[in-house]
Amino acid sequence: MSWHAHLHLDYRREAARSVARFRHDGPLRILQSLYPEGDAICHNVLVHPPGGLVGGDTLDIDIEAADGSHGLITTPGASRFYRSEGELALQRTRIRLAKGARLEWLPLEAICYSGCRAENRLTIEAEPGAEMIGWDVTALGLPNANQPFERGTYLQHIEVPGVWLERGRIDAADHRLLQSPLGFGGHRCIASLFFVSGTPAARARREALLALARTAIDAHGLQESAGATSPHAEIVVLRVLAPVVEPAMQLLRQVWQAWRAELWQLPASSPRIWAT
To answer: What are the tens digits of pLDDT across the range 54-74?
Structure first.
């Protein structure tokens, strides 16, 4: 039996508080809103009780943020794409940011189990004046548990329409991609951290973000397989390959904290659930 679950999450600013309201259909919802940084920033944890997707499952996540609101979304654990008997497992996330909105999209990693047939799609639409920091982390198999990614396919799609598109299909049978030094070089974690602005960012602002990312990379053990660039005036992105998730996530969190301080003058404030 397959699941088709949908969640619509809506951020609004009411007086001095960012407020989240949601509707859901199926096993997909958010926990209570938290305010560890004060009323201006609403922290939410997105929960999928089944814990993973099998062939035929679809998760649709729609997020909207209104002018003046600021939401931060994470998950309590990794997403999991399990082995499929032939049908596709699909997760679609659509984010729409109104003028003046801010959002932080910080889910934990997506794990691709051997034999999966999966697609993970993220689309971001930002009106002028809106800004977002987000990341996408993918783990191919579970190397530390001796569960390699030996069969299956995974499509990763990240798009800001008309501005930026990253799309790639990973096939476990493509040994040249997975093993070659011109491909993944044997690494099994692929991660990206990105800043999206609805208005072209000044060059000095983008250079400041790149400098922060490159300073962190130079001091990190993954310096040989990480890099930062600005492919468009509305985008800054850090990319990293790692043998496993933990060092990649450590680097992304470090740069995310530096970016939010630079962009929004906000201190490092990790979601509480990360400490559990």
So the answer is: 999 999 999 999 999 999 999
Six token digits for residue 102: 């801010």
Give the total residue count for the chain. Answer: 276
Query: Residue 32 is encoded by which pair of tokens?
Result: 């209570």
Q: What are phi and psi of 209, to 5 degrees?
A: -65, -40
Tokens 């990240």 found at: 158
Amino acid letter for position 21:
R
What distances in angstroms separate CA 89 from CA 130, 153, 250, one per listed residue? Answer: 31, 11, 28
Q: CA separation (Å) from 114 to 41, 47, 81, 186?
A: 38, 23, 9, 16
How would you class 150 by CB atoms within 10 Å of its CB: exposed for 0-12, middle for 13-18, buried for 19 or more?
exposed
pTM over 0.70: yes
> What tokens were used for 59?
């998760």
What is the C-alpha to C-alpha distance for residues 128 and 84, in angstroms, rounded to an integer?
Answer: 41
Half-sphere exposure of 259 (CA within 13 A, CB side): 29
> pLDDT tens, 27-51?
899 988 999 999 999 999 999 988 8
Give the strands of the sheet with 4-14, arranged side by side. Answer: 17-25, 4-14, 58-65, 89-97, 116-126, 152-160, 164-171
Q: Which residue in 19, 25, 41, 14 sits closest to 266, CA to CA?
A: 41
